[in-house]
Design a protein that fits this description.
The chain is α/β, with parallel strands linked by helices. 35% of the residues lie in helices and 27% in strands. The protein has two domains: 5-119, Rossmann fold (3-Layer(aba) Sandwich); 131-294 and 324-404, Dihydrodipicolinate Reductase, domain 2 (2-Layer Sandwich). The mean pLDDT is 93.
Amino acid sequence: MSQKLNIGLFGFGCVGGGLYEVLNQSQLLDATISKIVVKSPNKVRSIPEENFSYDKNVILQDASINVVVELINDTDEALDIVKTALLNGKHVVTANKKLVAEHFEELTELAKEKNVSLLYEAAVAAAIPIIRNLEEYYNNDMLTSLEGIVNGTTNYILSQLDKGETYESALKAAQELGFAELNPTMDVDGFDSKFKLAILIKHAFGVHADPKKVTNFGIRNIKKQDSKYATEKGFKIKLISKALKINNSVIGFVAPHFVPRAHSLHQVDQEFNGVIVEGAFADKQLFYGKGAGSFPTASAVLSDVSALKFDYQYEYKKSEQANGIGFSNDFYVKIYLGSEFISLINEVPFLRVDEVFQSKDYNYQVGWVHFKELEKFDLNKIKDLSLVVLPDAILGPNNINQLKAEQEAFAVEY
């Protein structure tokens, strides 16, 4: 883009304020935030009130503004802002993962029609440049798997659980530190991670994963007993967003996982994020960094703004290569279910049981289940039942005979 980047900024919270600061400190980018629109006139902000407007059309109808940066919390309002900006021929940079995941096809088609850029690096893992790398570095590599810790709030809470704290005390600490919202549902129930995973699946495999079809099991039911089991086995519990290519399908889900010491994500603690990408040629690579916070997220937004100077657009080359590949939840997974009540554990139909523990205080069972059976349970709302996925414990639909044969052999032996 030969002309100067003239930015209209929506939102001046944690990330918006951070972007204002880092852009003013940067000596390398010829870009200016000329107008800022916010929702509330009553908040105390770091710059004078005369810098703000409260009417979105001040930006959207200004022909001199060629870049809209959307950093607000209201997804419905954000959708209207982004669609109008694209229709008006403005480039858009957003950090709203829910917006992008739920309206992906509509927004990308609109951007293509108007020949403008829609960039959203900051929507996934903040300062970690994972989307750009999937688009550029891995554009010709046949990726086989992707897994990561992409939510700093849950990773902080689980790190505290690993130290012996309860879920309730760890959540309270996260809220006091500003890592968690007063209503933490989006984070602790895995919705935030699900939206991010849907975006990553598109860039990694070229497959559109409707967030409604991506299952998310969160961490709010993890108990001290579950953490104790993890410690005894040399594991840590991490909320993992996982996607694998199995045969002619891509599977993906969000759930707590037992992560062994040798795994690259084992030492990704506190509010940090980590993403592992595995390809046929590049093998495994770990991306690690701060996945939240004012400056880390603002740096990703700034990177997208900077890319507009070179007329950068996502090409979605993997979509062209994904002929006949679809998203599926037809696979088998080995899980740990823990509960005070044996009856709750027994409601889940295990195909094969490998380990059972029962006591007067707590019980758990380890074994294989069909993932479609798990989807029938809203485990985020069953407060007395915790689920954790075992390491390297996913099999495709063609492996059912193997599981049944092993179960039959076990029954004969014992």
